[in-house]
Design goal:
Metallo-beta-lactamase, Chain A; 278 residues
């Protein structure tokens, strides 16, 4: 990262007075605060896979919500390996947690967390929300998922997660109001390799594990979604590429509404479709 560069991956879904967070890259906690979303609203956290730019700040987010006054059970969903992450985080923070319980009267943080390690299929369902998962393609990570959120009688939102072009995602996202899909500009790939190093190995990873903006547009078209939102942009902070470059690349395969992600972006969801957008 460089000064003023975009923060890693994290998204918030707000429905009524409930806050759901999808992925917890560095900066998610302060970003929620800057958006005016009290951490005591937090009901659920989902992690799509265990790469650091999606999970690094999960523990700090949970801990900060707790020290901010959160006292209700908090549901955490992640792929296999999430339990080990949380156990190690709580162990690392044992002194602080035990001190605050004794000195400030807080409930034990570990007892508030309701962890579910999920795989493909239905992740959760209650009266107001159903969440399903689709394994995507993000080698060498095998436990990597797209997530679909269907709010009862209301809108639906799909997150692609980090993935190469994956045609089954079109069926998974069919009819969704919003598809949040990662995107890469092939012209920017070499600049990424030059900037961070890694040579042929990084180049091969980007090609095998991520989707171009045009491929994201193809998924959106085949799925018939209401709006495509590009995020997890590669490159994310290169001044040689503007929003116009992303829109042009997406237009090769998608003629519908598209929004290019940026820090702090708010996208209202309008079930009527014609009013949807940022």
């Amino acid at each position: 990262m460089r000064p003023a560069s975009p923060l890693p991956t994290a998204s918030a879904l707000v429905a009524g007075d409930e806050l759901t967070v999808v992925d917890c890259g560095a900066g998610v906690t302060v970003s929620l605060a800057n958006a005016g979303l009290p951490l005591t609203m937090l009901e659920r956290v989902f992690v799509t896979h265990l790469h650091s730019d999606h999970v690094l700040e999960l523990g700090p987010l949970l801990h900060t919500a707790w020290t901010s006054g959160l006292s209700h059970p908090l549901k955490v969903f992640g792929p296999p390996g999430m339990r080990e992450y949380l156990e190690h985080f709580l162990a690392a923070m044992r002194f602080d947690i035990e001190t605050r319980i004794a000195d400030e009267g807080r409930p034990p943080l570990g007892e508030l967390l309701r962890l579910t390690e999920y795989g493909e299929g239905e992740v959760m369902a209650d009266a107001g929300l159903r969440v399903t998962a689709l394994r995507n393609i993000h080698p060498p990570v095998e436990e990597s998922y797209a997530l679909r959120f269907d709010f009862g009688g209301g809108p639906s939102v799909v997150f692609s997660g980090d993935t190469a072009r994956h045609p089954p995602l079109a069926a998974f996202a069919r009819g969704a109001d919003i598809l949040v899909h990662e995107a890469m500009l092939p012209a920017g790939m070499e600049k990424i390799v030059e900037k961070v190093g890694g040579g042929d190995r990084l180049r091969a990873h980007l090609k095998a594990s991520h989707s171009t903006a045009g491929e994201a547009g193809w998924i959106a078209r085949e799925a018939g979604v209401g709006r495509l939102v590009l995020h997890h942009l590669i490159p994310a902070d290169d001044p040689d590429f503007s929003e116009a470059d992303w829109l042009a690349a997406t237009a090769e395969s998608w003629e519908g509404p598209v929004t290019v992600g940026r820090d702090g972006l708010v996208v209202p969801i309008d079930k009527k479709r014609e009013g949807a957008g940022a």
